[in-house]
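Hi again,

Forgot to attach this to my earlier email, sorry! This is the prediction with coenzyme A bound. I've pasted everything inline since the attachment limit keeps bouncing my files.
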Amino acid sequence: MLQTTPPQHAAIEAFGAYRPARVVTNDELATRVDTSDEWITTRVGIKERRYAAAHETVVSMAVEAGRDALGKAGVAGGEVDLLIVATCTAPSQLPSAAPQVAHLLGASAPGAYDVNAACAGFCYSLAQASHAIQAGAAQKALVIGVEKLTDWIDHDDRTTSIIFADGAGAAVVGRSGAQGIGPTVWGSAGDRPEAIIIRSRDQLLEMDGRAVFRWATTEVRAEVDRICGASGLSLRDIDIFVPHQANMRIIDNMLRALDFRDDVVVARDIALAGNTSAASIPLAIDTLLDAGQATSGDKVLTIGFGAGLTFAGQVFEMP
Ligand SMILES: CC(C)(COP(=O)(O)OP(=O)(O)OC[C@H]1O[C@@H](n2cnc3c(N)ncnc32)[C@H](O)[C@@H]1OP(=O)(O)O)[C@@H](O)C(=O)NCCC(=O)NCCS
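Structure tokens for the complex follow:
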């Protein structure tokens, strides 16, 4: 029998975000592809999104979001001993982004790696950070969801170019007197790899929108109750629902079928952020915090879902 560290509790200490400066409206997209503000607004619920400039890279946006979260938590970069970057748009196959992000944030030789679970990446990574702290493998973790999807979409394809966008969101996770992050429910459906796919480094994203929509509003939706139950709660106990910001109609469809309280706060960041894959959940939470729609101690239910197919979610207490 080997020696182990005693189990610890983990909680989120703060969120942070980075949004590229450039706002791209539906009208601007309609000058390039055959679409309209009316079609995008009613079918997807996006009004505008952010596009990163050349100097805004996966690494630089992750650093900015991470710095924002560390500042809000009052944590120095040097205290971070685990850094996880959730991304499916890292510019190089090797090295991964996380060690560079850690170095630029002044973290001293932390565990650092990328997670590619597409739009579920933030929830997978939050689970890993929580597990590492609970197991004593880390004391202060930084989890960053970041994407530069505009490098990987065909800007002449109206079915994908109107949806995807860029940005970064981050969370600081640390030891706590009580567990603030509930058990993660995660899973995959590897029989549908082609639903959202980038076939190789020299090819662009392809998506079967209808298949993704159907999966999200049937199989993924059914997981929301399981996520809640894993924390010993009912949907009526949830104060804030933060689904992956994929499509406003998917969010509305989920809400109609789920027994949340009437006063549950629902993240609808997609309207102004577009679909930023692994960054969408922490960006949406940052928006709610900025707008004063979230209070410390609120019970937040998240669910991320996307390419793979993969999904993951958990309940946590708002810092
Ligand atoms: C992509 C999506 C918005 C398409 O909406 P939809 O209602 O399923 O639309 P369809 O694909 O059935 O297409 C309906 C019509 O609109 C057209 N259309 C597609 N994109 C359009 C656009 N940007 N502007 C105008 N018309 C468009 C189609 O060509 C089609 O025309 P047709 O009937 O003449 O053939 C929708 O399927 C979706 O949101 N899916 C989920 C995608 C998602 O969440 N992806 C990320 C997961 S992480």
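Residues 93 and 169 are 22 Å apart (CA to CA). The mean pLDDT is 97.

That should be everything now.

G.
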